[in-house]
Specification:
heterodimer; A: mainly alpha; about 0% strand; extended; B: about 40% helix; about 5% strand
Chain lengths: ~230, ~325
């Protein structure tokens, strides 16, 4: 159990990500370990999408319905505008976020959301669907839609974490974070890093004169680096 | 390009940006916490973000097995909220700053305000998926599972009233008997005798079971009569902190309004008075530094454990200054 040394520091940030980062770092500084923050480490459910002919047919059906003719909206009756063409119900981001949180944290919504996440639907797409529907219903403006993208995405991610799902954030990036972990090198000094990076880059043979290439092939391993010290 | 296509395009850009930001935040934490998997850091960030975005009420909104439910870290984050909403952020002394600060936080502060939530119930839903149970089945509780006869205290069914109000579900069979325990009173569990349905079996709760009873339940029991107090919600004059774990929007504001209106000796409802100019100056400074229109400060999407008003407690505004003498007599 953590021996917490102090109360949390107060902080205000412009984005949820920054606020979360500050809170986690503050927690670590106050005496929590990362394991205490994240709780029990249990194997996660991998988000996997299964091919469904039914869903594909539905998608094809929706797409084949056609779309609006360019300029169609201009011939609509101005007295009966679409909801998104009228002033939005909510213009305050805080109120809009409260409204969204209230809507998202409903049993049916969460049930569907967890199923969608487990089915491989990315967090970004779910957030887009939720915010877009709010915009189309005339509840929020398009500016709020973009402003609320981050908090809503984090909220959906939290839902995914709580449901113990390994979810996609954008597209098919399930293992992206793990791959990055594997790619990370152990602590090398800067010279070693440069050396490793330089050696890993392939040399374009066209950039080397033919006579030099011939010489390399001829002499092979006998060629000494210009930087290496001579015997004399 | 049509409106919707351009929205979609813009949103995709935002999503890409958010993902990039998430990555950089993970990296930022990784610099401090060495050799930890990114997925663990991502989880920690998601937990912290859930507390920030949902107003922290999510932490108390359920029982069960979720990370948030058992998160001492989340509770720790919320200690700030309790202080802010309780108005003790600026200390309990009688100083000017404490007085004005507390007033400002009570009337203005909104971090971790009352926001209903049941995010943690998803932990149960997730576990139910794994175990092939009904998605909204309740989890195990103290006295057995919700479906076990005689269960005393159970984890609430996800998204049930108990889950939303942050309580454990207490079986109807539990009550307080003022005569039990040699007149000292105690909690009992009354169940029907399975061998003779006309009789009841009364079992005193063990100390462990009593300790597990939710505070929301025990505090509502009249220890003299053994009956449940009338559940009128927030009592007039109650500290606002209780509303932080309540549900529904604007509860904090309503509680404040109730408090001030009901205690008005003239018995007349007035609107909250407008705070003088000087106590708000630090917030004005904060607003101007961050290029925010002061009159619209709460429309700005700021996130965190604090509130713009916390600026009032910073060293800059709490240091002693030389007061300039006021105008004397006819001098002006």
């Amino acid at each position: 159990m953590a021996k917490v040394k102090r109360n949390p520091n107060l902080s205000v940030h412009g984005t949820v990500g920054e606020a979360a980062q500050a809170a986690v770092l503050d927690g670590l500084d106050a005496g929590f370990t990362i394991d205490e923050i994240v709780g029990k480490d249990t194997p996660k459910i991998r988000a996997e999408s299964e091919f469904s002919q039914e869903n594909l047919d539905e998608l094809v059906r929706l797409k084949s319905q056609g779309s609006a003719i360019p300029g169609q909206s201009l011939v609509n009756n101005p007295d009966t505008p679409y909801p998104w063409e009228t002033p939005p119900d909510i213009t305050n981001p805080r109120e809009a976020l409260d409204n969204l949180v209230e809507d998202i944290l409903q049993p049916e919504v969460i049930k569907n959301m967890v199923s969608a996440l487990a089915g491989g639907m990315p967090v970004g797409d779910i957030a887009m669907a939720i915010l877009y529907s709010k915009f189309v219903d005339g509840i929020i403006s398009v500016d709020l839609l973009l402003l609320l993208a981050e908090p809503v995405m984090y909220l959906i991610m939290a839902v995914g974490e709580e449901a113990n799902i390994k979810y996609n954030i954008e597209g098919d990036d399930l293992d992206e974070f793990d791959e990055e972990d594997n790619l990370e090198e152990p602590d090398l000094n800067p010279i070693e890093k440069i050396k490793k990076e330089t050696l890993s880059k392939p040399i374009n043979q066209n950039s080397v004169p033919q006579n030099l290439l011939d010489k390399i092939q001829e002499q092979g391993p006998e060629i000494r680096s210009m930087l290496s010290r001579g015997d004399e | 390009m049509g409106l919707f296509k351009s929205i979609k395009k813009a949103f995709k850009k935002v999503v890409k940006g958010v993902k990039k930001a998430v990555k950089s935040v993970v990296k930022g934490v990784k610099k401090v916490v060495k050799k930890i998997g990114s997925s663990k850091i991502l989880k920690a960030l998601a937990i912290a973000a859930a507390v920030v975005v949902t107003g922290g009420a999510a932490l108390t909104a359920f029982g069960g097995t979720g990370t948030l439910a058992s998160s001492t870290f989340g509770q720790w984050m919320m200690t700030t909220s309790q202080n802010v909403l309780g108005g003790s952020l600026f200390g309990t002394g009688g100083g000017f700053l404490a007085k004005t600060g507390n007033f400002v936080t009570k009337t203005l502060a909104k971090p971790f305000g009352a926001v209903g939530g049941a995010i943690g119930s998803t932990a149960r839903v997730g576990a139910n998926i794994v175990h092939g149970k009904d998605l909204l089945a309740a989890g195990p509780g103290v006295g057995g599972t919700a479906t076990t006869p005689g269960a005393i205290i159970t984890a609430p069914t996800p998204f049930s009233a108990e889950a939303f109000s942050g309580q454990l579900a207490v079986a109807d069979t539990v009550s307080f008997d003022p005569t039990a325990n040699a007149g000292k009173g105690g909690y009992i569990n009354t169940t029907v005798d399975p061998t003779d349905p006309t009789k009841n079996i009364v079992t005193p709760l063990t100390p462990a079971q009593e300790a597990s009873l939710p505070n929301s339940y025990t505090s509502n029991i009249d220890k003299v009569t053994g009956k449940t107090k009338s559940s009128s919600g927030l009592k007039v004059g109650d500290a606002v902190t209780s509303s932080a774990i309540g549900m529904g929007f604007g509860l904090t504001e309503r509680a404040i309004a109730n408090k001030y209106f009901s205690e008005d000796p003239r018995n007349r409802a007035d609107s909250l008075f407008v705070e003088g100019k000087s106590p708000l100056d630090p917030i004005r400074v904060y607003a101007s530094e961050n290029n925010i229109n002061f009159g619209d400060i709460y429309s700005h999407g700021t996130y965190g454990t604090g509130d713009p008003a916390y600026m009032m407690n910073t060293a800059l505004f709490s240091q002693e200054t030389i007061g300039s003498p006021t105008a004397i007599g006819g001098m002006s």
